[in-house]
Write a structure and sequence with these properties.
Strand order of the largest sheet: 1-3-5-6-7-8
Distance between the termini: 126 Å
Number of strands: 11
Radius of gyration: 34 Å
Structural class: alpha+beta
Helix content: 25-40%
Number of domains: 1
Number of helices: 4
Strand content: 15-25%
CATH topology: tt1808, chain A
Low-confidence stretches: none
CATH architecture: Alpha-Beta Complex
Largest sheet: 6 strands, mixed
Length: 264
């Protein structure tokens, strides 16, 4: 029997470009999704059922051609291999991922508008991406949008969600903005949050916090030791004063005899 399944004629990931080679025009387009990736690797270090791609082509069959990828700044897929048996992914090819689309896509808006609020939104909706996040810290006034917008796919269309951090129950993570302070630098970044709205810390932040806690405990021990030493010195001084008084009393008795009631 001759199989005419369309999937039989689709190229493999080895035959496809890994991205569209379009350069970014600001460092946030690269830094923000990588920051989320490294944080996720720390949070989900024991899980092997997820993949987070950064500036990686997603090849799909819902567009004009399966040879034309959509390349988000970042995306998350669940229920897939953390790492392919043959090594790192060159691209995310849906027909090699059991047709599992990303559940989360992130776009960081740049100086050159890239269709984040229209054409890309249509593509991601067609792919079935449940959560579409647009981070626009610099040009949101130009684009008449908010700096951070989270959209959820409802009946094939994206609906803007309210609240920050916003909890994405299907993923088990929230997303929101916060100030990162590390290496002497401060910058606004996107963080993952838990269901209570608490920000997940990076491994560096956890280490710094542990160091600060250890330093605080060391200072408390030093202070406690200083207090113990001060009390010991006070006791020694009191004992020395008592010994002096006892010696004076002894000499007095040796010279004048016992004290009378009138002397007392």
């Amino acid at each position: 029997m001759v199989q005419s399944d369309f999937s039989l004629h689709l190229p493999t990931s080895d035959e496809l470009p890994c991205s569209d080679d379009t350069p970014v025009d600001n460092e946030d387009q690269n830094f923000i999704p990588n920051f989320l990736l490294f944080l996720l690797e720390f949070i989900w270090q024991s899980r092997l059922d997820w993949f987070f791609g950064v500036d990686m082509g997603i090849y799909h069959t819902t567009g004009v051609s399966p040879l034309v990828p959509i390349v988000p700044d970042g995306f998350l897929s669940l229920g897939v291999e953390r790492r392919k048996a043959k090594g790192s992914r060159k691209s995310y090819v849906l027909w090699e991922e059991n047709n599992v689309p990303p559940i989360f896509v992130l776009e960081v808006v740049s100086l050159t508008y890239g269709g984040e609020y229209d054409s890309k939104m249509e593509i991601y909706a067609g792919l079935g991406v449940l959560y579409y996040v647009i981070y626009n810290p610099y040009y949101w006034r130009r684009d008449l949008h908010q700096p951070l917008e989270v959209y959820r796919l409802v009946n094939g269309e994206y609906q803007l969600q309210i609240g920050e951090p916003f909890w994405m129950s299907e993923i088990g993570l929230g997303i929101g903005r916060a100030i990162s302070r590390f290496g002497g630098l401060e910058r606004e970044v996107l963080y993952w949050y838990d269901e209570r709205g608490s920000r997940y810390q990076t491994s560096e932040e956890v280490y710094q916090q542990a160091q600060q806690q250890a330093e605080a405990e060391r200072r408390e021990r030093e202070l406690a030791q200083q207090e113990v030493e001060a009390e010991r010195r006070e006791r020694e001084l009191a004992q020395q004063e008592a010994a002096k008084l006892a010696e004076l009393l002894k000499r007095y008795r040796e010279r004048f005899g016992e004290l009378s009631e009138n002397d007392e």
